[in-house]
Amino acid sequence: QVQLVESGGGLAQPGGSLRLSCAASGFTFSMYGMMWVRQAPGKGLEWVSGIYSDGVESYYADSVKGRFTMSRTTAKNTLYLQMNNLKPEETALYYCAEGRGRGTSAEYDYWGQGTQVTVSS
Q1: Per-residue model confidence as pLDDT tens digits over 89-100
Q2: Residue-wise pLDDT tens digits, 32-49
Q3: Spatial CA neighbour of 102 closest among 66, 63, 74
Q4: Following DSSP, what letter does each residue of 3-23 receive, concatenated?
Q5: N or C: which end of the chain has fewer CB within 10 A?
């Protein structure tokens, strides 16, 4: 069965960095677009970034562009999100997902369980 397991969350100071990972199994990882989405406490789901199946191109929400970098490695069936210059309002549960599209039009087929990111001094 499809499994997506996120890791790498934790506590970061404002302006700090974290690198999230998502280990994928149960499907042909190299054939599917992937995404990162997040949900802050008391708020709805927010699409963060996406990457095409070939890993050549990634795309981002305006709020994270220039600070977050998404990548993937087929050899390890793993997805990454490098987050720099983090802001307190980015405290959220971060999920990786298999899906397509972007922003409010994104569609998700499978989700992980999420990894908590807390940005606080």
Answers
A1: 999 999 999 998
A2: 999 999 999 999 999 999
A3: 63
A4: EEEEE--EEE-TT--EEEEEE
A5: N
Tokens of 98: 């298999």
Look up residue 53 and give its amino acid. Answer: S
Give one DSSP letter per residue of 56-106, joined into a string: S-EEE-TTTTTTEEEEEETTTTEEEEEE-S--GGG-EEEEEEEEE--GGG-
For 29, the 3-state DSSP assignment is: helix
Measure the CA–CA gap between 35 and 72, rounded to whole angstroms.
Answer: 11
Q: Whats the size of the chain, residue-wise? A: 121
